[in-house]
Amino acid sequence: MEFLTGVKEEQTLSLAQLKEPERLGQTVQVQGAVHALRDMGNVAFVVLRRRDGLVQCVYEEGVTKFNLKDIREAATVEVTGKLEASEKAPGGVEIRLLDVRVLSMPEAPLPLAISKWKLNTSLEARLNYRSISLRNIRERAKFKVQEGLVRGFREFLYQQGFTEIHTPKIGAKGAEGGSNLFRLDYFHRPAVLEQSPQLYKQMMVGVFDRVFETGPVFRAEKHNTKRHLNEYTSLDFEMGYIEGFEDVMAMETGFLQYAIELLKKDYAKELSILDVSLPEVSRIPAIRFDEAKEKVAEKYQRKIRNPFDLEPEEEQLIGRYAKEEWGADFVFVTHYPSKKRPFYAMDDPEDERYTLSFDLLFRGLEVTTGGQRIHDYQMLLEKLEKRGMTEEGLETYLDTFKHGMPPHGGLGIGMERLTMQLLGEENVRETTLFPRDLSRLVP
User: Fold this and answer.
1) pTM for the model
2) Exposure string (b/e) for 296-328, b if CB count within 10 Å is 16 or more?
3) What is the mean pLDDT of the chain?
């Protein structure tokens, strides 16, 4: 009979442990995948890839008890050797190999040259071999930065008294309405993949006051652009007892400030690898929708073609305007027209053509949509009727409001878009692990 008492202490060392000065001169053991092999004749460099970075090992003929021909790139190994200082090696140390134990050997050569600093291949090829292309150090670093953004979202909201929830992704009716729904048969009943956790997180405000979720959402939009996906990860929160939608914008500003500081502290290596310049978030300007359109039209001599929504070019120009006029990378655009917002959006009591809602633009691209919600049951019914919508599929949601709800609001952040803009990428698929779009269903 054996008992497990906790995490097993590893016998092999991490990269951080290898950098400890007192270990120099010691015999150490390290595991990893062969990232690169550079055979110089009697001497060869074997670079191992680990979760925490690269480790350079030196193979010397006659010293290392192993034939170099018995390993190749992508093999996973355990090496034993003497740790020495080296200015030219990653991390400033290298292992002079004594022995190598092969843990697994690849069956085929790598389809991509992942050991190169930058993968000189098409995005299509990188996505087709996604699990291989991500072994490249720069490609992998993008998703460590993304981890930092999500981690910052969670940590900050926990500090602000939010409760993390997990809502269903199969529902009877879409939160946003409209036709961009993936419909499916659910045991002979019509169902949809949820466009967002909106209705559920609003209902949970009546339980926990403040809630958040990170999870997938689905949009059956027939877009094939560099900014759209049909499945993406949304960072959502909803908060009760607000004075106005400005409270929601302030909370997002706080999150961005926290996340940027976290990236500086814990993800400096990845930021350096990717040569990322972090945005300014000490203060974020807010401008009304109609005013933003007018200012952009005036400054850049662009005619306003659609008075009810922002076109991609307008978003870019508003981002440019914010940078030129206020030195801001982010800008809140507020008071969107009511006809372009969902039924639950609170109309502006001073002008019901507009809503108490906003988008957050980051370097000219919308990364967040949010605002204040209708919390009054009768107002919700009136809005549904005005929209020509029925209560079918919304019964539980509406019943929640019948029994009292506080003033509340929230938002949804596109995780992949936020990462894309932060890293300066041109295509959202670059910052999506396994993209789902019009043409891609695998891998």
Assistant:
1) 0.95
2) beeeeeeeeeeeeebeeebbbbbbebbbeeeeb
3) 95
